[in-house]
Inverse folding.
């Protein structure tokens, strides 16, 4: 690892991604000069739109792979999952950076972003979210620093980081547990606004639990994509084995949902035929029960297509759930409509394009993925997928 | 908190003259330009906007088989325990001992969580400004702190807006209802909603027909959040201790891997 050559191959697909990033940067500049109203469809009825609903809530949830993998690999010491640990950490770190950039675009008085560090509105859920995300992003940078210094030599820093790593690892699980749940708690305040199918005093449990069980599914998708892109063998046994975690957690998730609905006496709302109830049933059947079934059948979960399809359903399901909380469940009380403008979409696409580019750059320059022992003569596979060439 | 002020709006007395709207605009120096935020719903004459902190809304309702008009002055309710203030993570919205719930733009980050939190949907955002503010009625804090009534109340020609100590105002509302039980609906809106509000209403038609939100819980909304949030330090310490324990227990039994040997940059030929 002595060489310090940095490399980034620019391909056609990557040029397209770079174009998306540039468009998003220009649109963001416009937003900073002319205000949120000039580029978004947000309104007083819909103060939170695509950027908070998708980039922040989903971005952070999708980054859940980082803390669930850290818990499984480094605390429970399930070493067979070690091959995916660093990739999960990297995706998580990038997910948080995206969420923070998105948040910065979304807040109106961005030059005041530091105020909550000094004016403690501790009675606000957002206060906890703010502190946890700020600290956890720092912790992830430190965790990644341990990897960074394997390439960039700086022995003294590397030694300090390695010695203190157990502390960062544990803090790096506690903080996301808190703010993943708090992202759900944000909506407790909307007690008379969020549809009771989603509003619950235990919505923090649903948020943190789903962010956790989403982790293995995210690792599976991302691992498969990376394997295809770089013409490697997917870590198939690791993925199939990880499904057990998600399977049992999803079963518990489903049972708690039912019990919670019954306890609050709104179980029948799920079947009243309203738009909200149909969205809720879709969420439960297509994105919870179906993946549970697919993970439970060995003939499906041990196949590459099977574990991948089920994992995509799990990830899409968590996104669907967050969208239901932010949009579907709030629609009736908010009134009016909200649909993002093309600019809101373009800025979102630009941010996620930046994430893909950064991921590619980092895995090509830092030791993130496992060394290839059984290389599958790379050249052909990459172009086949279209993800990257 | 003994001197927390309150205001009673008697809907049966309002004649839609909009003196209160004009007084509000003049006292608070709000731009009369109707453009306001230029967002849907902020442009309508009778919609609250960043530059319209109070409006009088016209309702056509059925009463005794006839269609009648009732006018409802709308502004911030100034909750006794405001959800918006509890939602603000920068302390930009504060409940004052005098009663008004006021906004301090110096601390505001512009996250709009207060707008999600408000059970009445009152807050308005300056969508067109590069450095937007969240604006709403401030209940003329400097006047109220000086024991003067808010600007809007001071100009009401029919005395539909009554100002005083909140406790006295609630009593006054109940007294009026008791004096004319045939006229008023037996409910003081704001007495219990969201744990009580500083602005209270009495009416001769049911409140839900006048656009009032009737699903506002009687428990103060900040209490819901606090019920969950109070567990944070415990979870932090308990979960952290559990993880530390598991970490050391499992580490002793685990085999050591040299991570530097396991990973490598991907081959990018």
């Amino acid at each position: 690892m002595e060489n310090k050559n940095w490399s980034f191959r620019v391909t056609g697909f990557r040029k397209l991604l770079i174009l998306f990033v540039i468009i998003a940067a220009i649109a963001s500049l416009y937003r900073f000069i002319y205000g949120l109203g000039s580029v978004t469809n947000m309104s007083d009825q819909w103060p939170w739109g695509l950027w908070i609903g998708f980039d922040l809530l989903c971005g952070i949830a999708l980054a859940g792979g980082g803390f669930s993998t850290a818990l499984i690999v480094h605390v429970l010491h399930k070493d067979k999952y070690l091959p995916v640990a660093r990739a999960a950490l990297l995706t998580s770190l990038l997910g948080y950076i995206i969420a923070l950039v998105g948040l910065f675009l979304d807040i109106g008085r961005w030059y005041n972003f530091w105020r909550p560090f000094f004016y403690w509105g501790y009675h606000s859920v957002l206060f906890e979210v703010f502190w946890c995300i700020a600290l956890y992003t720092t912790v992830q940078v430190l965790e990644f620093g341990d990897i960074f210094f394997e390439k960039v030599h700086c022995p003294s820093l590397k030694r300090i980081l390695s010695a203190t790593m157990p502390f960062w690892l544990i803090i790096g699980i506690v903080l996301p547990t808190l703010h993943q749940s708090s992202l759900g708690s944000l909506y407790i305040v909307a007690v008379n606004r969020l549809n009771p199918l989603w509003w619950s005093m235990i919505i923090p449990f649903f948020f943190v639990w789903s962010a956790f069980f989403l982790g293995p599914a995210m690792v599976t998708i991302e691992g498969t994509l990376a394997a295809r892109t770089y013409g490697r063998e997917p870590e198939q046994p690791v993925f199939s084995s990880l499904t057990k975690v998600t399977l049992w957690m999803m079963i518990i998730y489903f049972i708690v949902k039912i019990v919670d609905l019954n306890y609050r006496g709104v179980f029948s709302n799920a079947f009243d035929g309203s738009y909200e109830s149909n969205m809720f049933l879709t969420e439960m059947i297509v994105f919870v029960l179906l993946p549970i079934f697919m993970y439970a059948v060995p003939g499906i979960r041990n196949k590459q297509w099977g574990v991948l399809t089920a994992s995509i359903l799990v990830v899409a399901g968590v996104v669907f759930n967050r969208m239901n909380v932010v949009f579907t469940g709030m629609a009736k009380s908010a009134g009016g409509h909200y649909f993002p403008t093309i600019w809101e979409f373009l800025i979102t696409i630009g941010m996620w394009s930046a994430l893909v580019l950064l991921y590619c750059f980092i895995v090509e320059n830092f030791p993130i993925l496992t060394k290839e022992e059984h290389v599958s003569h790379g050249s052909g596979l990459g172009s086949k997928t279209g993800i990257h060439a | 908190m003994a001197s927390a002020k309150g205001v009673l709006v008697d809907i049966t007395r309002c004649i839609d003259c909009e003196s209160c709207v004009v007084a509000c605009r003049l006292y608070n120096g709000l731009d009369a330009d109707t453009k306001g935020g230029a967002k849907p719903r902020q442009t309508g004459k009778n919609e609250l906007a960043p530059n319209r902190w109070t409006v009088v809304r016209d309702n056509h309702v059925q009463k005794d088989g006839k269609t009648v008009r009732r006018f409802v002055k709308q502004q911030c309710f100034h909750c006794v325990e405001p959800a918006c203030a509890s939602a603000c993570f920068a302390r930009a919205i504060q409940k004052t001992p005098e009663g008004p719930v006021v906004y301090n733009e110096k601390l505001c980050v512009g996250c709009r969580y207060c707008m999600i939190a408000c059970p009445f949907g009152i807050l308005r955002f300056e969508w067109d400004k590069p450095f937007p503010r969240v604006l709403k009625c401030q209940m003329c804090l400097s006047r109220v702190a000086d024991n003067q009534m808010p600007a809007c109340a001071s100009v009401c020609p029919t005395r539909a807006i009554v100002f005083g100590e909140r406790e006295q105002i609630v009593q006054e509302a109940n007294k009026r209802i008791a004096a004319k039980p045939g006229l008023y609906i037996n409910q003081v809106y704001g007495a219990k909603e969201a744990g009580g509000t500083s602005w209270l209403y009495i009416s001769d038609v049911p409140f839900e027909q006048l656009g009032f939100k009737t699903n506002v819980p009687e428990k103060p909304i900040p209490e819901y959040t606090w019920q969950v949030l109070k567990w944070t330090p415990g979870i932090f310490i308990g979960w952290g201790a559990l993880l530390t324990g598991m970490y050391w227990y499992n580490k002793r039994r685990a085999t050591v891997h040299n991570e530097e040997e396991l990973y490598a940059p991907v081959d990018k030929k």
